[in-house]
Amino acid sequence: MIKEKEYLSRRVAFANSLKTNSIAVVLSAQIQVRSNDTEFPYRQNSNFYYLTGFKEDNAVLVVRKGKKSVETTLFIQKKDKLLELWTGKRVGVKRAKKIFSFDAVFAVDDFESKISDFLKVSKNIYYDFDVSDKRVEFLLSRTKQYASRENLALLLGMQRLIKSPAEIKLIKKALSITKEAHHYAMQQAKKSANEREIQAGVEYIFKKNGAYSDAYTTIVACANSANTLHYISNDKKLVNGALILMDAGCEYEYYASDITRTFPVSAHFSSAQKELYTLVLEVEKKIISMVRPNILRSTLQTKSEELLCKGLVDLGILNGNIKKLLKNKKHKKYYPHGIGHWMGLDVHDVCPYKDKKGKEIPLIEGMVLTIEPGIYIDKNDTSVSKKYRGIGIRIEDDILVTSDGYENLSSEITKEIDEIEAIALS
């Protein structure tokens, strides 16, 4: 768990990044309608949660920075017995004042009157440009014409790039649950009839072990389905002799895991499958070994493309000079995506890859990113030997940048061919 002291330090750091005489307004997530009068399970806005640790809807955080002081104010839903009868107990203003370290806590009904007073002495207004909400509309309607408007998402994105020890601990916990789910899937493939059956077991393991939910929609892609990168239908029958590409990770206490493993339905890899899998695995290991402070993600991307292109030539899938193939992006047909992304409160953490000047941000100790090379060969690609057609392989791990290199946070999730086959047969 993240302690209140850490949330307080985050708010202080955020306030210090604001210009003097500024006000920042951070909104909770809104309840989303699923169908008619039913709603999706509520999940707090990541930026709001990062600064507050508060999980309820209909809340606002206001951070004010003056010349010599910083003040934080939380607006929340007041206690309402009738509403709580239907949707559960609320913290309420009185209790929130005791358990959270804000300078003031008010009922959200007071937001418009209070914010109007705050705006009178504010020259810079920070809010999330991507959030559309009646509270944002009110804020902007009360904003003085001369006041600058700043996107707070950019500042928080930079702050969220570096994970604290407590955050890393939660990611590791998410990964320990995800490990159990992936190993379960490897074992159950030979006994299962369809993709959804495996998905159901994986998500049961997530819930059973205390995960809030999956961190993203689980992908269980058998055979040619794996060549659709974001395949989430999971409604096809399992094909004996084919591979399953499973991209699945849970969210534990708001922190994500993101893991892809590729394994055989019938417990054994064929010779052709082994050839492609070994190529992807060797590339993944090489790129992970390159992770360290000050290296650029683009360097990792370029190297992964070079290695995969060479491997595709060695296997006869591509033909020609490797430099020319890379220049003409011929390899992109089989490796169309990036080498990885930031991960944290969001599975694709909304953190920048470039600074304000447009310069790429190098890896820094405390960052967490995925490394996930892949090869995808459509079943109808007649330019490729028949033995490789219909195979899609991706291998993905979650990597922490350390002071002198890296730590593979998901190293206990099996990915060696012999180990996968041993689990599948157990």
Notes on the protein architecture:
- The structure is a single chain.
- Helices cover 36% and strands 19% of the residues.
- It has 426 residues and is α+β, with helices and mostly antiparallel strands.
- The protein folds into two domains: 4-160, Creatine Amidinohydrolase, Chain A, domain 1, CATH 3.40.350.10; 165-425, Creatinase/methionine aminopeptidase superfamily (Creatine Amidinohydrolase).
- A hairpin with a 2-residue loop joins β12 and β13.
- α8 runs antiparallel to α9 (195-208), α8 (165-188) packs across α13 and α10 runs antiparallel to α11 (297-314).
- The longest helix is centred in the middle third of the chain and has 24 residues, at 165-188.
- It is globular, with a radius of gyration of 24 Å.
CATH architecture descriptor text of the largest domain: Alpha-Beta Complex
Number of helices: 13
Main beta-sheet strand count, sense and barrel state: 6 strands, mixed
Q: Low-confidence spans: pLDDT under 50, at least 5 residues?
A: none
Q: Could you give the order of strands across the largest sheet?
A: 6-5-4-1-7-8
Bin the strand percentage.
15-25%
Radius of gyration from CA coordinates: 24 Å
The CATH superfamily name of the largest domain is: Creatinase/methionine aminopeptidase superfamily
Distance between the termini: 35 Å
* Category from helices, strands and their pairing: alpha+beta
Mean pLDDT: 95
Q: Estimate nothing, just give the exact number of structural domains.
A: 2
- Specify the helix fraction band: 25-40%
